[in-house]
Amino acid sequence: MIDLALAFYLVLILPSQQLWRSIRKSDKPKRSREQRYLATIRSIGMTLIALVAACWWSGHTASDLGLGVPTSGAALWCLLIPILGLPLLHYAGKAREAKMPAAKVAEMYEQVRASDALPRTPGEMKLFVLTTLFIGGGWELLYRGFLTLVLMPLVGAWGAVLIAGVAYGAGHGYSNPRQITLSIVSAILFSVGYVLTGSLWWLIVVHVGIPLMGAISCYKILNQQPNGEAHAIS
């Protein structure tokens, strides 16, 4: 019963809350980045505590949730995807930036500086890293490992993929039709990857690695003076 209650929260309540918050206009003062990071950590942390209780009650093991040690087969091969692919993605981005016109690079840097979500200080960066670990590890565990495990006996593997993918994509909130469509499609693809391999490890590395790489690159931009020299932003 506790499994179904947590699944209900993940499929309906949490995505609905996130969609509502992203659509409604609030008059409340905007929270600082640190407050937002801490709120995300608290929210995921509390949900993970509920997951631990559900697993203890129902007898689910780490392997049941996709956290078994990948020793062979598709799970091990797929772990090579982020290990090899993330460095290649980083250097490809650098090469692409090097070929951009100076005006385009300057425009891109200005967009980064205008963002209110990116960490600017060493303290914010540390919190952002922790937040990314909670997001990448926690949500993969909840929406891929746990939700697929609970839903598969009820709706089958591909039904579980569809439901978990749509719920997680909707949980990103709504900005525009393109954003929510991409969120749902990418979430479904991640769920397909999990069902085909039975392992969360490679998905967690991807989910943590990509935003961290982007944040580190943007942090360097935000800590550059106009002449290109680094400085600490207070």
TrEMBL record:
Keyword field: Hydrolase, Membrane, Metalloprotease, Protease, Transmembrane, Transmembrane helix
Q: Can you give the residue ranges of the CAAX prenyl protease 2/Lysostaphin resistance protein A-like domain?
A: 127-210
**TM region(s), chain numbering:** 44-62, 74-92, 127-143, 149-168, 180-196
Q: Which Pfam families match?
A: Rce1-like
Single GO MF annotation: endopeptidase activity
**Gene Ontology biological-process annotations:** CAAX-box protein maturation; proteolysis
Source species, domain of life: Bacteria
Write the protein's name.
Answer: CPBP family intramembrane metalloprotease
